[in-house]
Design brief:
With about 90 residues, this protein is α/β, with parallel strands linked by helices. Helices cover about 40% and strands about 15% of the residues. The chain is built from 3 helices and 3 strands, in the order βαβαβα.
Length: about 90
Amino acid sequence: ERGYPLILVTTPRLGSINHTLLSLEAIRSRNLRLLGLVYNQFESGPAEIIRDSCRVFSRALKEYGFADRIVILPAETDHQEVDWHPFLAPLS
């Protein structure tokens, strides 16, 4: 209703690829504006899964007509205040 852009957040967990692809399809079918995708490694997975997932997401973003903007948030075990500006810069 207000036209705010969306930021879709995903993780390297089981089922996340399917969930993310379904979300991208829903966003496109509703003509919503997607600012980008955030890959949150809070529960870090194997490097090859992260790499392969990001390839799938990059291809899907392009296929659905969205900008190929993926921000990867590193696994953060120290729960202190985080400066989000460096991570969000690619979305602007």
